[in-house]
User: Which sequence fits this backbone?
């Protein structure tokens, strides 16, 4: 079984511990949610997993391979994919071109293949083009294929960002507030796709502030505060705790 394991992970900035001895395990086929107030350390955890930050102490493993302090592209090549809260699509490229550049290991990127094996390159491009259209249809963006990404709504850009992530065929998906700022209909579509991906064997971790979304999609919830995980369990148990409501929801 594929798993992502954090063992006593710590990140300090000067004398401040943004993440303090966090140990977590994320497994395939499940959606885990990281929740907690702003500044709890949730995004820092993602940055440590994805290689955007180096650990101060601890270890991170994916499928028994230690990925602690590897470069982001090395971690991505192992099958750990991530989207940021702002989506980060290529604004000046068309929706289709955004998809096409997301596919890894394209033979056309190698000058020798382009010069001496054009037929193979063209055949691969045809296959990837078909897959791009399939993904755009899956995410409801087929009618926007030739529009610039900058012309899409915020919610549509979120969908495009997730579709691009799927194009790289990651085994682990790290999603920072995937439904923030989108319409309820778009949020419902995103959650449906995430559940389908989890059911297909993907390991999915989301940072989410919308508790309704958490209760709908998560199989397990980890509540963070002050850089630590203080509670873990099923959504209906964690979200109903008065401690969580007081610390997180101000109730």
Assistant:
């Amino acid at each position: 079984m594929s798993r992502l394991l954090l063992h006593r992970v710590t990140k300090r900035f000067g004398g401040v511990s943004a993440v303090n001895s966090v140990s977590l395990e994320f497994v395939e086929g499940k959606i885990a949610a990281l929740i907690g107030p702003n500044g709890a350390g949730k995004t820092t955890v993602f940055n440590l997993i994805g290689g955007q930050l180096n650990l101060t102490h601890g270890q991170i493993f994916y499928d028994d391979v230690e990925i602690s302090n590897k470069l982001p592209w090395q971690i991505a090549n192992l099958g750990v994919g991530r989207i940021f809260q702002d989506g980060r699509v290529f604004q000046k490229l068309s929706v289709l071109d955004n998809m096409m550049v997301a596919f890894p290991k394209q033979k056309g990127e190698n000058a020798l293949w382009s010069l001496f094996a054009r037929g193979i390159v063209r055949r691969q491009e045809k296959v990837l083009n078909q897959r791009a259209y399939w993904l755009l249809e899956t995410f409801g963006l087929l009618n926007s294929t030739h529009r610039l990404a900058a012309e899409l709504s915020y919610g549509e850009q979120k969908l495009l960002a997730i579709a691009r992530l799927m194009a790289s065929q990651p085994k682990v998906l790290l999603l920072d507030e995937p439904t923030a700022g989108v319409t309820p209909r778009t949020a419902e579509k995103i959650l449906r796709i995430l559940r389908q991906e989890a059911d297909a064997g993907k390991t999915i971790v989301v940072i989410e502030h919308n508790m309704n979304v958490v209760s709908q999609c998560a199989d397990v919830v980890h509540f963070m505060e002050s850089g630590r995980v203080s509670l873990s369990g099923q959504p209906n148990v964690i979200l109903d705790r008065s401690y969580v409501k007081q610390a997180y929801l101000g109730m």
The longest strand covers residues 16-27. The chain has a mean pLDDT of 87. The chain has two domains: 1-79+170-251, 91-167.
